[in-house]
């Protein structure tokens, strides 16, 4: 029987959804936590994954990585890196997560692949950050200061003038500044979350906040949204730019420059989105993972790897 690991630091609704989608396929599901995994060179594989011992899974899906020290996060990502290096399908891989959890790197990759995205800067020096804010003020623009590794709209601050930076304590001593995008329609603060699997858009919703922060976790309302061609195509360009197998792409409409990608989430929640669509998102993820697993099996059928 195929064994698929779901990695999460707190198994809940999402794990249950994935289990419900995978169980009818004759798959054994193992819930695990990367914080409890270890490198163990006495084991046959060199890894110890709770629920598997020294064996390796046939595939894995990552639903959460707990906060921790730099060293702890490195070890957890080492486990994911190793699984991928052994040819085991992982959604998403450690490399994909590293590319997207770092907002500055995401901005760089989107810019490099010519995916429309707000202007952004990252620096360690307050004087440089003040210079960037002063430049934006001269251009009659504002900036948003974001934690480099933040999520769910936590810790983001709107910067209208250089003096606003004085009251900020930059997370990790680093200033990641993104151009503030004014709403395309006055006083309607909204953006789109597009869920993409295998570089194909499968569902979308509109998130609308009472203020400029539109994260559902911060109280924004959410509504069904049609998968319009332009938004869907842009979301796929974004996932290709950062090379994620699945992701939640946040897109905003600008007053004059069309749609732009704010960020790409490589471990996206879909609980709110599922309430706006008839598409079985967990089922689509399970299907994609099983297709990858079977492709991997045929690709390695001549090797010693047993699946």
UniProtKB/TrEMBL annotation:
Pfam families: RimK. InterPro entries: ATP-grasp, ATP-grasp_RimK-type, Rp_bS6_RimK/Lys_biosynth_LsyX. GO terms for cellular component: cytoplasm. It comes from the Bacteria. Residues 107-290 form the ATP-grasp domain. Keywords: ATP-binding, Manganese, Metal-binding, Nucleotide-binding. One of its GO terms (molecular function) is ATP binding. The keyword ATP-binding applies. PANTHER family: BETA-CITRYLGLUTAMATE SYNTHASE B-RELATED, RIBOSOMAL PROTEIN S6 MODIFICATION PROTEIN. This is SSU ribosomal protein S6P modification protein. The lineage of its organism: Bacteria, Pseudomonadati, Pseudomonadota, Gammaproteobacteria, Chromatiales.
